[in-house]
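In the design runs reported in the main text, the only information available to the sequence generator was the tokenized backbone. The following block is the verbatim input for one such run; it is reproduced so that readers can re-run the procedure and compare outputs position by position.
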């Protein structure tokens, strides 16, 4: 990211006081009492020319920010040198940085308010996003922009630039994967948000997503835009959001005066999780159902048949006299069946088990929709080998204990592939006892029966430590470095023809 051209001189690297956004602001004089832009210095011929130069989506978002910050028509701003539609790597055209004095009486600290422009459709001409929808409430681009509130450090008069880089990184993730962010989501980061600028003692190493408390949903000529605020959180707060509800954790953070107040201002100097979360221990009771139903992860899978050394041990051979008795008994049974008449005598066990199950699954829940509507591309596998990165595998205990043993499902979604573990009896699933591994293109469903789930629960319990390198101690005196487990790790269940391997992230590049 670098400074764009404009009339103002940069105040620091990559920051300008005048650029495309300031051009929009200067083309829109001060608003009237009822917030309708006036144009006393423009004649009628100038207005259409300005409308042609300034993208309509950008104008609408700028107006929304101007209503919140009427005294800052020309904010500090970060721009990209090479725009995304020209081959650049940064999807955000601009990131504005507004000064907000906060509300000390409500424990809301003075802070910088960062606002992105580019996740939504600024232009409406197809250069970045598909043409906007025509139905009421259709989203503009991805339907949201990103914001962040960062507390102002004493004596610092310019906004740090690392939040702008963070927002760009999140936008690249959205554009690369197509995964949209929503309020209540969590984002695992596993490193200092500021790159270590606040020192190694910073505990904010993950992110939560909230609705921006002051910027409401905006209607632009290209669709609606919601402002989603990125909030720094601790490892303990992240785990609570994974096990319970991101909204509940955000509420607890907003109610703690030391955590940024009701506007969810991120304080990089914060050393501990929010007070009520610490008092509750930061985790749900063991075995409690989890609301988290899926995450993004690096993964791949393949069909797998155990090698002879991995197969369950065969029983000892029977004595010849016993084998002969068994053969005679089976022969008598087969002879008696040949005397039966009617179709019942030729019933297929497989079709009997399949027919009643297929009729019992008429309703496909939203998670199972899409690729699973037809059976043309469905493949039934005899066994599977699943590979996850450490971050994805760290949620296996939650998936098994909080979802599968509770009779539900859990999904990992990667780039071009997906994996869903399913408990027996989940409506809409394509797996059952006779066919526990079903693939539709790159989406794999895996049935986890109760006996397997109980065994997996014991064996994967330690996997929650795979993402604990930045876990929060209860006090500074207890602070200890947690060595991550050695990878790769492989677990096999030969009886079920299931293998799971945890690999380092580099193995998925």
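Verbatim output:
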């Amino acid at each position: 990211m670098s400074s764009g051209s404009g009339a103002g001189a940069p105040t620091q690297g990559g920051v300008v006081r005048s650029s495309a956004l300031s051009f929009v602001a200067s083309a829109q004089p001060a608003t009237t009492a009822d917030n309708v832009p006036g144009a006393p210095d423009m004649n009628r011929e100038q207005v259409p020319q300005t409308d042609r130069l300034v993208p309509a989506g950008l104008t609408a978002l700028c107006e929304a920010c101007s209503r919140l910050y009427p005294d800052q028509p020309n904010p500090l701003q970060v721009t990209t040198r090479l725009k995304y539609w020209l081959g650049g790597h940064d999807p955000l055209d601009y990131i504005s940085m507004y000064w907000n004095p906060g509300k000390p009486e409500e424990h809301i600290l003075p802070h910088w308010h960062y606002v992105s422009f580019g996740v939504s459709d600024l232009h409406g001409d197809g250069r970045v996003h598909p043409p906007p929808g025509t139905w009421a409430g259709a989203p503009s681009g991805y339907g949201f922009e990103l914001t962040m509130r960062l507390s102002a450090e004493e004596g610092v008069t310019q906004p740090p630039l690392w939040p702008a880089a963070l927002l760009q990184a999140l936008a690249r993730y959205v554009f690369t994967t197509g995964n949209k962010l929503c309020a209540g989501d969590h984002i695992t980061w596993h490193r200092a948000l500021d790159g270590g600028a606040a020192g190694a003692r910073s505990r904010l190493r993950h992110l939560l997503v909230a609705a921006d408390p002051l910027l409401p949903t905006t209607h632009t000529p290209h669709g609606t835009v919601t402002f989603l605020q990125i909030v720094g959180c601790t490892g303990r707060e992240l785990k609570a959001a994974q096990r319970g509800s991101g909204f509940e954790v955000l509420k607890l953070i907003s109610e703690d005066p030391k955590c940024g107040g009701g506007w969810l201002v991120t304080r990089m100097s914060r050393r501990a999780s929010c007070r009520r979360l610490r008092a509750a221990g930061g985790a749900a009771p063991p075995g409690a159902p989890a609301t988290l139903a899926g995450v993004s992860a690096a993964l791949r899978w393949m069909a797998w048949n155990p090698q002879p050394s991995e197969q369950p041990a065969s029983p000892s051979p029977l004595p010849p006299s016993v084998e002969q008795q068994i053969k005679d008994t089976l022969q008598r049974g087969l002879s008696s069946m040949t005397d039966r008449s009617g179709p019942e005598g030729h019933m297929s066990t497989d079709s009997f088990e399949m027919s009643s199950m297929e009729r019992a699954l008429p309703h496909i829940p939203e998670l199972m929709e899409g690729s699973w509507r037809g059976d043309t591309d469905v493949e039934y596998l005899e066994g599977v080998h699943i590979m996850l990165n450490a971050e994805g595998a760290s949620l296996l205990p939650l998936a098994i204990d909080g979802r599968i043993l509770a009779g539900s499902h859990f999904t990992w979604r990667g780039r071009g592939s997906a994996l869903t573990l399913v408990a027996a009896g989940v409506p809409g699933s394509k797996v059952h006892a006779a066919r526990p591994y079903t693939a539709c293109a790159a989406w794999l469903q895996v049935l986890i029966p109760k006996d397997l789930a109980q065994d997996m629960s014991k064996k994967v319990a330690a996997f929650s430590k795979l993402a604990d390198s930045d876990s929060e101690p209860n006090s500074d005196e207890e602070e200890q470095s947690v060595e991550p487990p050695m990878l790769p790790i492989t677990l096999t269940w030969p009886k079920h023809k299931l293998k799971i391997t945890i690999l380092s992230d580099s193995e998925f590049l």
